User: Which sequence fits this backbone?
């Protein structure tokens, strides 16, 4: 798991004399076995053997041979031993295989992980109680539960006996409903303390449709607005099942949100007087000028650029001198990663969007502007 503080530490790190090896390795045990992932790792490291430090390459192999327990689904490593810098992050979520060598950590994929797998709550509810889960980056951070009074369901008979006992049955049914309502109210109160105060950015509810309709109506508006989906899940479901089923909902919600964001970006950039930028040139200008509010990047988009070795200004096209300080411009392998770093440094939001044909056709990168 990686925190926002650790991400900022990666943003701030840069080496002057050496290089940083950045490795993203998928190790999801549901897809391949450990030995196959080891072969993938060796192939990736061999591909950058002429660029990376031999010490860094050896340290990565040593980590997988002797330290990593192979229990997660992804691993992210940043190594620059010449500057005594080593960071390894085993993750409970899968990552795309990638390896980079540059003067700073390659952080672009991490912003996607923090965005898509950010903290969310799951509440399983029935008429007798509730189980609450707090997940972050595919890991269970906290769980809580409540069990109210048992709801005894009255057996209904038939014929004349049912008629004679009709009044009793009706009273028993009302009593059952009153107990269930009290239990649901207690569950709603627990949900407020568990998910309130911004702890859960999104909430998934689990249970029967009827029960969830009643329960959601008891939640305060603040929490109702955070409910992003429901799942027909039994209270006895395992933690693994709760995680897997809720992640399906979260991922689908994320896809829809990304589609809406791309549509908003393109509309803002193409409409008259709109506040948007598309393409590497305009986006670089918007971010470096402090006008960008949200930087939007297509997953996997890489573009070379030119950076000032004095002030850090980045241009999409070759320039001999920096237009701002007159410093020398040098080619950089991935101007996109550089601008992502700058956006984070300036406190801007960064969204990495998967599989958007519309964004790729519009230049694969853009920004929604503040003004």
Assistant:
């Amino acid at each position: 798991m990686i925190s926002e503080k650790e991400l900022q530490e990666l943003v701030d790190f840069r080496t002057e004399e050496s290089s940083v090896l950045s490795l993203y390795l998928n190790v999801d045990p549901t897809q391949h076995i450990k030995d196959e992932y080891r072969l993938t790792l060796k192939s990736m490291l061999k591909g950058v053997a002429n660029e990376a430090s031999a010490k860094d390459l050896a340290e990565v192999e040593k980590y997988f041979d002797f330290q990593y327990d192979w229990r997660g689904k992804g691993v992210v490593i940043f190594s620059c031993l010449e500057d005594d810098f080593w960071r390894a992050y085993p993750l409970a979520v899968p990552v795309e295989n990638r390896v980079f060598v540059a003067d700073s950590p390659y952080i672009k994929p991490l912003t996607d992980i923090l965005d898509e797998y950010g903290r969310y709550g799951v509440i399983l509810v029935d008429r007798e109680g509730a189980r609450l889960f707090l997940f972050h980056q595919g890991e269970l951070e906290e769980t809580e539960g409540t069990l109210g009074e048992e709801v005894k369901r009255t057996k209904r008979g038939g014929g004349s006996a049912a008629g004679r006992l009709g009044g009793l049955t009706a009273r028993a049914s009302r009593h059952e409903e009153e107990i269930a309502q009290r239990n649901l109210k207690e569950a709603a109160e627990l949900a407020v303390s568990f998910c309130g105060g911004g702890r859960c950015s999104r909430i998934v509810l689990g249970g029967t449709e009827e029960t969830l309709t009643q329960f959601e109506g008891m939640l305060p508006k603040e929490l109702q607005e955070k409910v992003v989906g429901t799942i027909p899940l039994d209270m006895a479901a395992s933690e693994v099942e709760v995680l897997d089923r809720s992640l399906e909902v979260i991922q689908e919600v994320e896809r829809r949100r990304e589609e809406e964001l791309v549509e908003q970006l393109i509309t803002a950039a193409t409409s008259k007087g709109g506040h948007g930028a598309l393409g590497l040139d305009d986006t670089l200008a918007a971010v470096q000028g402090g006008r960008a509010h949200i930087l939007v990047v297509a997953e996997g988009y890489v573009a070379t650029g030119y950076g000032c070795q004095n002030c850090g200004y980045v241009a999409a096209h070759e320039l001999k001198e920096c237009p701002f300080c007159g410093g020398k411009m040098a080619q950089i392998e991935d101007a996109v990663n550089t601008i992502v770093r700058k956006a984070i440094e300036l406190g801007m939001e960064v969204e990495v969007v998967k599989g958007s044909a519309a964004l790729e056709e519009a230049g694969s990168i853009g920004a929604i502007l503040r003004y």
The chain has twelve helices and 16 strands. The first strand starts at residue 20 and ends at 26.
